[in-house]
Amino acid sequence: MIAEVKNILGLLPKPSTERKILVACSGGADSMVLVHVLLSLNENIAIAHCNFNLRGEDSNADEELVRNFALKNKLSFHVESFDTTGFAKHNKISTQVAARELRYEFFKRLKKEFSYDYIAMAHHADDMAETVLINLGRGSGIAGLKGMPVFKNDIIRPLINVSRREIENYATKNSVKYRDDITNFDNKYTRNRIRNEVLPILKEVFPNFLQNVSNSAQLLSSQEVIYDERISDFSKYIKEDNDQISVDLQGFASSKQAAVVLFEYLKEYQFTYSQCENIFEDFSKNGKIYYTQTHKSTIWNEKLLIEVLSSENQQDVFCIDNLFNLPDLPLKLEISLLSKDEISDFRTAQNEIYIDY
Question: Is 43 exposed, middle or buried (0-12, 13-18, 19+ CB in 10 A)?
């Protein structure tokens, strides 16, 4: 493990004698082992801990463990206590997303204030595989399937090529104290279910699964560079004029994969790939409108005119362009396509409606 970490650190532009690394440490096995390994390599490190106050006394016990380790090893220690639940409710996001946003904002603030060169995260090979599987299940493109990068701006992941089993073995062998987060075993969360149920089966079926995912992610990262270079050729067909974006569909149609290319440009406006396919099918239909949760687009003279939805309409308009591939909606919706012969009368239950197809 030390060799793998040393190899990754050796790729950093600053030598070990000049760099300062802020280590994100939760108190779990992954981050405690990362701190231990970096110390054994004589890296100049400090520790940052987030107390999200989500698990009562367990959260405080995590903080105490990390604090005591920092004091014992004479390391700079930064800690922040968050009202994660309140932040999530205020911003109408999930607790997990809230914790992520709070965590990264805290780390970046510390980096700037104390002039740290890098922020080290304890993501490992199992985390990489879980991320790839989640993104695959959600229908991600290349960007999602390449997983988590080893380096991204000032973020580094020294354990990305190390498995969870190797980390646990290292902790046992070197008497590294850590605490288990009991929520990691709650399979109501998607990542936990993949971690606890799906990944073990894949490792059994494919003994080299983690290494294969890592190799594929590296290959996809390289291929994405070529892909992005080709996609960038189409930027000339997009014009911004005040609050409206104009897309020359005729220009995009020159590609054999027009919908794919268009999707790469429109996904930031919440358009789906299915919508991009339909846009080219409706190429000549002047006045045809497509909605996303944030934008409205209109086809006019072989151009797609995109504008931001007004705030009062953003939560009310949802585009259903395929009966059997529904967008994310704020309610449960089931659609069935019926013939007239299947309908005895048009009286419906309270939560039903008939619409002329």
Answer: buried
- CA–CA gap between residue 19 and residue 212 (Å, rounded): 32
Q: What is the largest CA-CA distance in the chain?
A: 81
Q: Tokens 């409108």, residue? A: 289
Which stretch, 172-181, 221-230, 318-327, has highest mean pLDDT? 172-181
Tokens of 154: 């000032």
List of long-range contacts for 277-280, beta carbons under 8 Å, 24+ apart: 278/321, 278/322, 279/249, 279/304, 280/249, 280/252, 280/253
Q: Distance of alpha carbon 34 from its chain centroid, rounded?
A: 22
- SS3 assignment, position 42: coil
d(CA 357, CA 354): 9
**Given CA atoms 84, 59, 171, 17 in this order, what sign does their dihedral have?**
positive
Angle between helices 258-266 and 273-281 (to 10 degrees): 130
Q: Which residue's structure tokens are 């650190």?
A: 9
Residue 228 has a pLDDT of 86
CB 106, CB 50: distance < 8 Å: yes
Neighbouring residues of 329: CB distance < 8 A, sequence distance ≥ 6:
318
Q: State how far the alpha carbon of 267 is from the alpha carbons of 157, 167, 173, in Å.
A: 28, 37, 47
Please report, as a single letter, which amino acid is at residue 113: E
Q: What is the pLDDT of residues 251-274, one digit of tens each?
A: 999 999 999 999 989 988 888 888
Q: Among 60-64, 81-85, 218-222, which stretch is predicted with the lowest mean pLDDT? A: 218-222
Least Cα distance to 97 among 186, 189, 182 occurs for 189
* Bridge partners, 156 (sequence order): 120, 151
User: What's the one-letter identity of residue 150?
Assistant: V
CB of 153 closer than 8 Å to CB of 111: no
pTM of the model: 0.73
Residues in the chain: 357
Q: What is the pLDDT of residues 268-324, one digit of tens each?
A: 888 888 889 999 988 888 888 888 878 889 999 999 999 988 655 555 556 676 666
